[in-house]
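Deliverable D4.2, example record:
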Amino acid sequence: MRNTVKIIIFVIFFFVISVFYISLNRETNYNTSSLINKEVPQFKIAYFDKNGSFTKQDLINNNYTLINFWASWCGPCRVEHPVLMKLSAENNLDILGVNFKDKKELARKFLKDLGNPYNFLLKDFEGKQSVIFGIYGIPESIIINNENTIIKKFVGPLSIDDYKEIKEIIK
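Output generated by the structure prediction step:
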């Protein structure tokens, strides 16, 4: 009986040490590089202010699409907004705004105060549709070509350097 207890304790100890060791060697950085050069998954996101939904098939009509996930309560979203406004002047780029876990009236005020750079405005008030794109926080943006391939993903607010890179991509 005493040997059985020792064996059980040893097995439990070995199990705990194994789990700890495996956890230490796991990659924990947020990495979305696996999405690049992959086709956009099927999605259906409701329009912000009208009936109906925007789907993957709607992307084919655009040369390039920048999907931007944002919210009025997001400080970094305010920081990137002037960059989005500059990008909205580009002819070869449509900007799709996905309002993320926000209150509709606050989102409307945000766009009224700062301007609306979006060609299409969608809503993901529960945050479920954004997960399809690997979105874990906002702001995040994804560039997609007319073949529905993800070209680049930007985590965090878009900067002037990102603006220049996006302009190069959509040339």
